Amino acid sequence: MKQLKKFKGASLHISNTPFKKTIKRGTKIKTKLDLTKDPNVRKRLKWIQHYEKHQNARLTCRYFGISPTTFYKWKNRYKKYGLEGLKDRNKRPHRVRQPQIEPELEFLIITVREKFPTWSKEKISVFIEKYLDIKVSPSTIYRVLKRNNLIERTRKLTWNFKKRKQIGKKNRTRRGLRADKPGTVLIDVKYLYWCGKTFYQFSAIDKFTRIGFAKVYSTKSSRSGKRFFQELEK
């Protein structure tokens, strides 16, 4: 009783106490909880808020059912980076391994593009699958064309082709594919059966000059297609 009388009327100051600092930190975390909508960030902020209030890591881990390793991982990231440190990081590697493509198939794609510069990657894909029986995705064709700087040039050629087409549309009657000069080549592959075996005839004909060229191969592959185009160039 004497001790109580001694301090009777005295005021209690908590301006420099750790308790007030904890209150301030807890208030800041509560404000951040109101600002963020990310459920994972909110969950981790609640861990930090509980720890700041009780100053006991084990108690916080038991309360939320998390391991000390998990708690300290996010606590340290929050201390170092703030609210951004509580966000999930992108686990995708910085450098993604590009799928490999056979040199023969890449040569074939480039050759078809140079022969038909206005064709899209989808049309090239259909052409190669139809006549060479090789499945190659449009995305793979796009990567090959981009790697060989054949994208921007093709866009310009396509635009010029469409413009010329619109200008001369009224002045001509469309009767199949026509050519005004040498260079427009039609390519086809036919099956030949001989002595119980299947052979493949690769044919090419210039629409303007009507000059034809044909070769027979035992397989319908990208290697055969490459050889055919190389011999056609000669």
TrEMBL record:
This is Transposase. It comes from Balnearium lithotrophicum.
